Task: structure prediction
Amino acid sequence: MEPEQFKTTLNQLLDGSLSIPDVVDRLVRSQSGVEHPSNSKQSPSPANKTALTSEACVDLGRAERCGFPEVVYGRGKTPKAIVGVFEALTAAGQACLATLVNDEQATVVQARFPDVVFNKTARTLRISPKNQKSRGLVAVVSAGTSDLPIAEEAVETIRWANCEVDLIVDVGVAGPQRLLNRVEQLRRADSIVVVAGMEGALPSVVAGHVSTPVFAVPTSVGYGANFGGVSALLSMLNSCASNVAVVNIDAGFKAAYLAGMVARATATTSNN
Result:
């Protein structure tokens, strides 16, 4: 095996695109003079690369295909599983985000990655590459203090997406003057996430003041007839404002992901 081929093989072992048996097989074939079908010219493209951990197959090509790296849904996963995914992503120079994590998971991940940001309110873990310039601005609007955990999840997602974020809290429709005082601030954003429970009216009110997409997040905050957020969801789906799009109940991550895509695309277009 030529030195460059040997170096490529070792790098593929380190990044997870080759397993140890694959490497052994390649070395044996090289010594016997048989060309390995998976030589360096045929190695997986960056968009198709994966890394295997003991509990996951990490999609290292998602950032190239979809704009952002793979994200860990923390609920039901072992702390070791989250650590393994974070190790694979950081080795590839990619940002890390885990949502809906508990204290036990956070403690283990923090021990392995001292620089990880644990937002206890949002229940997220985040590692962002250093010295990256932010692109685009997203405003996150929370109707009430009880909606803050979902709003904070959106905030952490936007930071992971490498966008600027402007958090506006406790401006629900019960006190409409509070929102009116922030309209000019909202109009500076490239996209907006609005988080609300109860009757879910706030996204429509916000959307009536701005020319940007509003991603509405119904929350499970509310009394019995709220039906765990279903009433807010239905209200938002029936919004009279044309620039409102609705995600699932308590899905702050999903709304922020979409808002981040819009903000980054807007920033790119503005700079060209």
